[in-house]
Amino acid sequence: MILGTGIDAVSIQRMKKLQGRVLEKMFSASELSEYAALENAHEDIRAQFLASRFAVKEAYAKARGTGFCATVVPNEISTLKEEDGRPYVQLSGKTLDNAPHCVIHLTITHEEPLAIAMVILESASETEEA
Questions:
Q1: Half-sphere exposure of 26 toward its Cβ, with a 13 Å CA cutoff?
Q2: Alpha helices of the chain — where are they, by DSSP H?
Q3: Are 118 and 6 in contact (CB under 8 A)?
Q4: pTM for this structure?
Q5: b (16+ CB within 10 A) / e for 68-93
Q6: Is residue 81 very low, low, confident or very high in pLDDT (cuts 50, 70, 90)?
Q7: How far apart are CA 10 and CA 58, in angstroms?
Protein backbone atom coordinates (compact mmCIF):
# COMPACT_ATOMS: atom_id res chain seq x y z
CA MET A 1 0.00 0.00 0.00
CA ILE A 2 1.22 3.49 -0.87
CA LEU A 3 1.55 5.58 2.29
CA GLY A 4 2.54 8.81 0.57
CA THR A 5 4.02 10.42 -2.52
CA GLY A 6 6.01 13.58 -2.92
CA ILE A 7 7.65 15.44 -5.75
CA ASP A 8 9.75 18.58 -5.74
CA ALA A 9 11.65 20.76 -8.20
CA VAL A 10 14.56 22.98 -7.15
CA SER A 11 16.30 25.72 -9.12
CA ILE A 12 19.89 24.67 -9.79
CA GLN A 13 21.03 28.30 -10.06
CA ARG A 14 19.60 29.13 -6.62
CA MET A 15 21.91 26.56 -5.04
CA LYS A 16 25.03 28.40 -6.24
CA LYS A 17 24.42 31.03 -3.54
CA LEU A 18 24.38 28.62 -0.57
CA GLN A 19 27.30 28.47 1.84
CA GLY A 20 28.34 28.10 5.48
CA ARG A 21 25.72 27.47 8.15
CA VAL A 22 22.90 27.27 5.63
CA LEU A 23 24.57 24.23 4.06
CA GLU A 24 25.00 22.62 7.50
CA LYS A 25 21.34 23.15 8.36
CA MET A 26 20.11 21.69 5.08
CA PHE A 27 22.50 18.85 4.27
CA SER A 28 23.76 15.79 6.17
CA ALA A 29 27.42 15.19 6.98
CA SER A 30 27.66 12.51 4.27
CA GLU A 31 26.16 14.84 1.67
CA LEU A 32 28.50 17.66 2.70
CA SER A 33 31.44 15.28 2.42
CA GLU A 34 30.40 14.26 -1.09
CA TYR A 35 29.87 17.94 -1.97
CA ALA A 36 33.36 18.82 -0.66
CA ALA A 37 34.81 16.13 -2.92
CA LEU A 38 33.39 18.11 -5.84
CA GLU A 39 35.46 21.19 -4.97
CA ASN A 40 37.31 21.10 -8.31
CA ALA A 41 34.16 20.46 -10.35
CA HIS A 42 32.45 23.21 -12.33
CA GLU A 43 30.08 25.34 -10.21
CA ASP A 44 27.11 24.09 -12.27
CA ILE A 45 27.90 20.48 -11.29
CA ARG A 46 28.21 21.47 -7.62
CA ALA A 47 24.92 23.39 -7.75
CA GLN A 48 23.22 20.47 -9.52
CA PHE A 49 24.37 18.15 -6.72
CA LEU A 50 22.92 20.40 -4.01
CA ALA A 51 19.68 21.04 -5.90
CA SER A 52 19.02 17.34 -6.47
CA ARG A 53 19.72 16.49 -2.82
CA PHE A 54 17.47 19.26 -1.57
CA ALA A 55 14.69 18.19 -3.95
CA VAL A 56 14.85 14.71 -2.35
CA LYS A 57 14.45 16.22 1.13
CA GLU A 58 11.42 18.26 0.05
CA ALA A 59 9.87 15.30 -1.79
CA TYR A 60 10.31 13.08 1.27
CA ALA A 61 8.74 15.71 3.57
CA LYS A 62 5.80 16.01 1.17
CA ALA A 63 5.39 12.23 1.01
CA ARG A 64 5.23 12.21 4.81
CA GLY A 65 2.51 14.86 4.59
CA THR A 66 4.22 17.12 7.10
CA GLY A 67 6.69 19.29 5.26
CA PHE A 68 9.73 20.15 7.35
CA CYS A 69 8.89 20.20 11.04
CA ALA A 70 10.28 19.07 14.40
CA THR A 71 10.11 15.42 13.28
CA VAL A 72 11.19 15.82 9.64
CA VAL A 73 14.52 17.67 9.60
CA PRO A 74 16.36 18.41 6.33
CA ASN A 75 19.88 17.45 7.46
CA GLU A 76 18.56 14.13 8.80
CA ILE A 77 17.47 13.07 5.29
CA SER A 78 20.46 11.87 3.26
CA THR A 79 20.64 10.83 -0.36
CA LEU A 80 23.27 8.15 -0.86
CA LYS A 81 24.17 5.85 -3.76
CA GLU A 82 24.07 2.09 -4.12
CA GLU A 83 27.17 0.45 -5.63
CA ASP A 84 25.47 0.52 -9.03
CA GLY A 85 24.77 4.27 -8.70
CA ARG A 86 21.08 4.11 -7.80
CA PRO A 87 20.14 6.75 -5.23
CA TYR A 88 18.48 5.88 -1.95
CA VAL A 89 17.30 7.75 1.13
CA GLN A 90 18.82 7.23 4.56
CA LEU A 91 17.17 8.79 7.61
CA SER A 92 18.70 9.63 10.98
CA GLY A 93 17.87 11.36 14.25
CA LYS A 94 14.29 12.46 14.98
CA THR A 95 13.37 11.98 11.34
CA LEU A 96 14.22 8.27 11.57
CA ASP A 97 12.66 7.91 15.03
CA ASN A 98 9.33 9.24 13.73
CA ALA A 99 9.35 7.63 10.29
CA PRO A 100 6.75 5.02 9.37
CA HIS A 101 8.06 1.50 8.79
CA CYS A 102 8.16 1.61 5.00
CA VAL A 103 10.20 1.26 1.85
CA ILE A 104 11.30 4.57 0.32
CA HIS A 105 11.34 4.60 -3.48
CA LEU A 106 13.33 7.46 -5.02
CA THR A 107 14.04 8.88 -8.44
CA ILE A 108 16.04 12.01 -9.26
CA THR A 109 16.54 13.88 -12.52
CA HIS A 110 18.11 17.17 -13.46
CA GLU A 111 18.11 19.30 -16.55
CA GLU A 112 18.99 22.96 -16.32
CA PRO A 113 17.27 24.91 -14.81
CA LEU A 114 15.75 22.30 -12.43
CA ALA A 115 16.56 19.28 -10.31
CA ILE A 116 13.50 17.10 -9.62
CA ALA A 117 12.97 14.29 -7.14
CA MET A 118 10.05 11.96 -6.55
CA VAL A 119 9.57 9.86 -3.43
CA ILE A 120 7.03 7.10 -2.86
CA LEU A 121 6.55 5.62 0.61
CA GLU A 122 5.31 2.04 0.46
CA SER A 123 4.19 -0.10 3.37
CA ALA A 124 7.08 -2.39 4.27
CA SER A 125 4.78 -5.34 5.00
CA GLU A 126 3.50 -5.42 1.41
CA THR A 127 6.95 -5.31 -0.18
CA GLU A 128 8.11 -8.17 2.04
CA GLU A 129 5.27 -10.32 0.69
CA ALA A 130 5.98 -9.54 -2.98
A1: 17
A2: 12-15, 21-26, 29-36, 43-64, 93-97, 124-129
A3: yes
A4: 0.92
A5: beeebbbbbbbbeeeeeeeeebebee
A6: very high
A7: 9
| pLDDT exceeds 60 at position 129 | no
Rounded to the nearest integer, the mean pLDDT of the chain is 94
Q: Are 117 and 106 in contact (CB under 8 A)?
A: yes
Amino acid letter for position 30:
S
Distances (CA, A) of 118 to 18, 26, 90: 23, 18, 15
Segment 101-120 mean pLDDT: 97
Side chain identity at 130, as an amino acid letter? A
Beta carbons of 58 and 116 less than 8 angstroms apart: no
Strand order in the sheet with 114-123: 2-11, 114-123, 102-111
Q: Which domains does the chain have, with CATH numbers?
A: 2-129 (3.90.470.20)
How far apart are alpha carbons 4 and 24 in whole angstroms? Answer: 27
Per-residue confidence (pLDDT) for residue 22, from 0 to 100: 93
